[in-house]
Amino acid sequence: MGERLSNLFPLALMVVLAALTYWLDQVVQKPAAAPNLRSLPERLQALVARVEREWDLEVQMDVDVPPEMARRFTQDIYHLVREALTNAARHGFASSATVRVVADPADGFRVSIVDDGKGFAFSGTYTGEQLASMGMGPLTLRERVHALNGSLTLESGPSGASVHIRLPAVA
Predict the structure, then answer these.
(1) Residue (of 18, 17, 29) closest to 141 by Cα position
(2) Rounded (10°) angle between helices 67-90 and 40-55
(3) Are 114 and 84 spatial neighbours (Cβ–Cβ below 8 Å)?
(4) What is the secondary structure of the chain as a DSSP string?
(5) Which of 1, 37, 56, 113 has its CA 20 to 30 A from that of 124?
């Protein structure tokens, strides 16, 4: 019996490593945009170009963020937008999306991603907390927003989905 268990150990270790690698890729992803681009608009523009090329998703983008505010949240906002656009293309089969990122020191950040895909498996407007209690919606986005002390609202219907994220000026 002990010999059979010791033979299973390498297999179990491989499964655990594969799961950990997947989790790191999905939740703690490294920036995929060109790392030498410093500003939030530059990073998002590189992301949009990549998404348009890889997913055939037409993306309109509007970024209005003071540079002094953007520096602290560039990576976080980049990951939120990347996740939402990838979800729109991969799961929603969207052909177009609009990204809007605005911020001011008093109000914090507002990030919106609206797509023309098929929406989620549910219709209506839900907060991140409601989605979590139902076990539905974009888990990675909910976790990222929660970690940043933000809020998420998701609207879904047969003609697409809208993800609205609010982040405080200081997380």
Answers:
(1) 29
(2) 10
(3) no
(4) -HHHHHHHHHHHHHHHHHHHHHHHHHHSPPP-S-TT--SHHHHHHHHHHHHHHHH--EEEEEEE--HHHHHHHHHHHHHHHHHHHHHHHHTT--SEEEEEEEEETTTEEEEEEEE-S---SS-EEEEHHHHHHHT-S-HHHHHHHHHTT-EEEEEEETTEEEEEEEE-S--
(5) 56
Q: 0.85 cut: is pTM over it?
A: no
For 140-158, the pLDDT digits (tens) are: 999 999 999 999 999 999 9
Cα–Cα distance, 75 to 145 (Å, whole number): 13
Residues 102, 130: Cα–Cα separation, whole Å: 25
